[in-house]
Amino acid sequence: MDFFVELFTNPVGFYNQHELLIAQIGINAILAIAIFVTFYSGQLTLANAGFMAIGAYTTVIMSLYLPTPLPLNMLVGALLAGMVSVVVGLPVLRLRGVFLAIATIGFVEALRLGVILNVPITGEGQGLKNPSADPLGGIVPILISLPILAYIVWRLTRTRLGQAWSAIREDELAASSNGINVPLYKMIAFIISAVLAGYAGALETHINFFVDPTEYGITRTIQILTFAVVGGTTNVFGPIVGAVFLTALPEIVRQFAAYRDVVNGIILILVIIFRPQGIVGRGGLAIIRPRWWTRWRARERPATAH
Amino acid sequence: MTQQVLNAIFIGSIYALFAVGYTLVFGVLDVLNLAHSAVFMLGAVITYSLVALHGMPFLPAAVIAILVCGLLGLLIEFVALRPLRRRNAPPISALISTIGLALIFVAIVEQATPGTLFSWLWQDGANSVRFPAGTVPNPTYHLAGLTIEGTKLGILVTSVVLMLVLGYVIRFTQIGRALRAVAENRRAATLLGINVDRIFASTLFLSSALGGLAGLLFGLAISDIGPYIGRDQVELKGLAVIVLGGMGSIPGAVLGGYLLGLIEVLAFVRFGSNVEAGVAFAALFLVLVLRPQGLFGARLRERL
């Protein structure tokens, strides 16, 4: 509870004290946006941890060996993730449902265990030291990027592109019979998601002194998936709320911090069973606005109309 | 080289045993049970705990662990799968709810140190342990220049026998016929008077018991017991195995298990341990993309 008291009574002190947590929340929120894009187009792809790794490693390797400025390195990292996503997406996006999920997990692990651990430039199992790390300065680009990216993606979901994604998500066959180029739109979603994940990976290296290959495996993938499921994917704010909530949770209830995964697991099961549309569903924030409130509002409305 | 092929067969047996349970659930229920690897881990952990912390002889400990794992399968069915089925949720939801259960199982073991809530189950936190020496007799045989450890031989025999028994049960017994009927067409099976929910529950029990057995055999053979053995050692490799063999096909999973064991050992001999770790996923990726129905012929493609 101290957490909240401090947040409201002493926001500046709160910010200074929890800078790393805030940075991590920001990065997780960007990752959540990344997985949201593919979810929104009806695909369960779990490749984001791999694209993160590409963004992160590219940025750090460029900082180590090239005199280019850091923002450029980050941009190249994100774009490279996007390019790899085209190569991966072409064969993989033909798969559906569980098979797509498995294939993308296979990509993540093959990249980590097969490529990163075997190519000397990545430091193999030892990871890489990041020469340009700046934990306190790194938070600023994160906090600036997050609202911009969220806004862009939110706008995207309201364009023709977003409508096409919705149509594919609801019924792929109907979408394609209505003249929507399904493979193309799926690919666009996959690329955007990869670029966002690569960018988040690049940002993260900036607040860490170290790039560690174990960070980009199945655990990370599942964590990102959890943000999207718990937050809900009807709109872009769902996954962001999920990321903020789940990242801050161990700090809020310190006594359960060790059992964080137990709590996460329970939340995941409860949400998927009782509120499949996530915390932020079509009805807005469910926790803040419980069901009796909407029912009460519905009863009130005809009375006020007269 | 022959020695390496032997190792491939040992590790392949464990992969096959693990993957058979995985694929059974996929074949019958049409969901991917990602808690299977956590049950695998608990199979090893519970046996270890009964032997090392509670001083039980190995065999009864193993039997109890297998039964407990079977019951955990029922827990998976009742907590994570049945509520979703009632709601007609897409199969992806079941994948996510079983991930939730797996997170819980792993975290419970990982956080258990002396003096905590679960110290009766596990006391070594995130560390990895091995069975106390002499838990099972392990004579070593030398045959034509090959070294064969008794435990590994036992594991090979156990898993082959069990897979044959499973094949028999599914082919020729009443419950096996019901199982295949449900896998083929859930609705028609209901119309024929099969209690589908009960078949699902028994499938989960059977699959999880096999998973737990695979886990304790793994702990015995590899001498590595800890909260992450399921997630790191077999979860994704098991996926690779059932993809290689064709999702939902039991003979496919058995062949796929041995095939993956062989591929890994060959990769290890040829390129070293770093490549060995990645080769399963490369195989998984390639097979899904090039031949999603699995590597083997049409006869194995039909479910179960």
Outline the structure in words.
- Chain A has 306 residues and is an all-alpha fold.
- Chain A has a single domain (2-305), classed as ABC transporter involved in vitamin B12 uptake, BtuC (Orthogonal Bundle), CATH 1.10.3470.
- Chain A has helices at 2-9, 11-17, 19-40, 48-65, 70-92, 97-116, 139-156, 160-170, 172-177, 182-207, 218-231, 237-252, 260-274, 291-305, and strands at residues 128-129, 210-211, 280-281, 284-285.
- In chain A, the strands form two sheets. In chain A, strands 1-2 form a two-stranded antiparallel sheet. In chain A, strands 3-4 form a two-stranded antiparallel ribbon.
- In chain A, helix 3 (19-40) packs parallel to helix 7 (139-156).
- Chain A is globular, with a radius of gyration of 20 Å.
- By secondary structure, chain B is mainly alpha-helical.
- Chain B has one domain (2-125, 142-301): ABC transporter involved in vitamin B12 uptake, BtuC (Orthogonal Bundle), CATH 1.10.3470.
- Chain B is 73% helix and 3% strand.
- Chain B is globular, with a radius of gyration of 19 Å.
- The A-B interface holds A 44, 91-92, 94-95, 97-99, 101-103, 105-107, 109-110, 112-115, 117-118, 124-125, 218-219, 222, 225-226, 229, 258-262, 264-269, 272-273, 276 and B 32, 79-80, 83-84, 87, 89-93, 95-97, 99-104, 106-108, 110-111, 231, 235-236, 239-240, 243, 247, 274-275, 277-282, 284-285, 288-289, 292.
Distance between the termini of chain B: 34 Å
The DSSP helix count of chain A reads 14
Radius of gyration of chain A: 20 Å
Query: Which descriptor suits the 3D outline of chain A?
Result: globular
CATH fold-level name of chain B: ABC transporter involved in vitamin B12 uptake, BtuC
- Rg of chain B, Å, rounded: 19 Å
What secondary-structure arrangement, pairings included, does this model have?
The complex is a heterodimer of chains A (306) and B (304).
Chain A lengths: L1 H8 L1 H7 L1 H22 L7 H18 L4 H23 L4 H20 L11 E2 L9 H18 L3 H11 L1 H6 L4 H26 L2 E2 L6 H14 L5 H16 L7 H15 L5 E2 L2 E2 L5 H15 L1
Antiparallel strand pairs in A: 1-2, 3-4
Chain B lengths: L1 H28 L6 H18 L4 H29 L4 H20 L29 E4 L2 E4 H23 L1 H11 L1 H6 L4 H27 L6 H17 L4 H22 L1 H18 L7 H4 L3
Antiparallel strand pairs in B: 1-2
Helix pairs in contact in B: 1-5, 1-8, 1-9, 1-10, 2-3, 2-4, 2-8, 2-9, 3-4, 3-8, 5-6, 5-8, 6-8, 9-10, 9-11, 10-11
